[in-house]
Amino acid sequence: MMKNLTIKISLFLNYFIFAILLNSVGIVILKSLENYKVDEVQASALEWFKDLPIALVSFIIASFLPRIGYKKAILTGLLISMIACVIMYYGNSFWSAKFLFAAIGASFALIKVSVYSVIGLVTNSAKEHNSLMSSIEGVFMIGIALAYFLFPAFNDANDPDAWLRVYWLLSGLALISFLFLYVTKFDEGEEIPGINLKDDVRQMIMLCVKLSVIVFVCSAFLFVMVEQGIMTWLPTFYNRVLELPSNVSIMMSSIFALSLAAGRIGAGVLSKYISWFYILISCILIAMLMVIFILPKTIDVETGVIESIFDIPILGFAFPMIGIFIAPIYPLLNSAVLSSLPKKMHSPMTGLIVIFSALGGTTGSTLIGWLFKNTGAQKAFYYTLIPMVLLSISLWVLKRITTTHAN
Q1: Backbone φ/ψ region at 245: left (φ over 0), alpha (ψ -120 to 50), beta
Q2: CA–CA distance, 390 with 51 (Å, rounded to integer)
Q3: What's CA 144's distance to the chain center, in Å?
Q4: More confident residue, 115 or 86
Q5: Which residues contact 393 (CB under 8 A, 6 or more apart)?
Q6: What is the pTM of this model?
Q7: Looking at 16-30, 61-75, 78-92, which range is the least confident one?
Q8: How many angstroms separate the CA atoms of 290 and 234, rounded?
Q9: Which is nearest to 187 in space by CA: 66, 13, 79, 341?
Q10: How far is CA 236 from CA 27, 299, 306, in A?
């Protein structure tokens, strides 16, 4: 339907913009180390300022967001983000960076809970839900990849503040998305979790005691811990270990984001023919093998004079390709749990997804930042093997639970 098409375009556009804003944190961490003279642990605080508001706002609003209205929530998030981008430009300090990510985090909580809930409204089957979810998450990764080219495009070796001009562009994109959504009309549905606000919250809490939900949110936590830890610190890894220029380090990180996009879009196709469990277990195993065998070779690769991304040896591109294999985990897990619930429970369930994803992202990024400082950039990423092993165990448990319920 044409009506649903405009809604879907709006969802893609909003997610695309927030992909750039949210996942520029690794770039801003690198800039903070260079321009604001903070250390690695201090810089990693930007993850806390981004993810804690996501978790807090999601917890507060997720259960009764249907009463507020998804469209109003998304418009509010876009407006907050526009203002935050302007403040970052004029503030030009580590404190304004903290404010920026706190505002973006709070806004993204409104956006993500709304988008995930609206997916349930505009799809009519589990396969359709999985396809749209994977596509939207794939576009999210493309937005992340663009960020790694967009920010360097504004860099100027003679002006350390030139990169801040990108925030005028981002503010303009948010304004375009705001106006597009404002004129888009759609039926938000009339289903709400409970009979009043108190009952809405009770319904969300009741989800927390289900064993399958507990195992699921643990899986989401562990996955985002791995993904965000790598994504946030990859620019610094290339800068410190391979001694690449800042611009090239940032661009190289786009390989990881593009591989995530390819993995998520590909997962939407594979999941039509292969069980989600076998896809994910295979992907985790390959990702672990890449950390064990490919990462050391990346660290030992010899580089000459690097002036652009094309001067890097082919082996230098290998490790970011791990994104292809960790990418399918998140959308397949989310779609599986959401499509199995009544549509009125999508908002509170999404709230739980967002909360534990945010906490996982913060934990992963902070731990990798601590490891970068205390064990060295060469060794830090090896520790991602621990959450990968735990994730494979939690997926096996989740598979047993869902099989038992199905039987």
Answers
A1: beta
A2: 22
A3: 9
A4: 86
A5: none
A6: 0.72
A7: 61-75
A8: 15
A9: 66
A10: 9, 13, 16
SS3 per residue for the chain: CHHHHHHHHHHHHHHHHHHHHHCCHHHHHHHHHHHCCCCHHHHCHHHHHHHHHHHHHHHHHHHHHHHHCHHHHHHHHHHHHHHHHHHHHHHCCHHHHHHHHHHHHHHHHHHHHHHHHHHHHHCCCHHHHHHHHHHHHHHHHHHHHHHHHHHHHCCECCECCHHHHHHHHHHHHHHHHHHHHHCCCCCCCCCCCCCCHHHHHHHHHHHHCCHHHHHHHHHHHHHHHHHHHHHHHHHHHHHHCCCCCHHHHHHHHHHHHHHHHHHHHHHHHHCCCCCHHHHHHHHHHHHHHHHHHHHHHHHHCCCCCCCCHHHCCHHHHCHHHHHHHHCCHHHHHHHHHHHCCCHHHHHHHHHHHHHHHHHHHHHHHHHHHHHHHHCCHHHHHHHHHHHHHHHHHHHHHHHHHHHHHHC
At 287, list the tokens. Answer: 């990702």
Residue where the block lists tokens 């970068």: 372
Which pLDDT score, from 0 to 100, does residue 1 have?
Answer: 45
Confidence of residue 198 (pLDDT cuts 50, 70, 90): low
CA separation for the pair 190, 75 (Å, rounded): 20
What is the token pair recorded at 133? Answer: 């979810």
Torsions phi, psi of 159, nearest 5? -140, 100
Question: Which residues is 156 bridged to in the sheet?
Answer: 159
Domain 2-406 class?
mainly alpha
d(CA 251, CA 310): 11
* Residue 351, both tokens: 């709230």
- Quote the pLDDT of residue 82: 94
Asked if 49 and 345 touch (Cβ cutoff 8 Å), the reply is: no
Find out whether 368 and 381 touch, Cβ atoms under 8 Å.
yes
Q: Please list the residues that pair with 159 across neighbouring strands.
A: 156
Q: What's the one-letter identity of residue 193?
A: P
Instruction: Quote the tokens at residue 268.
Output: 């939407």
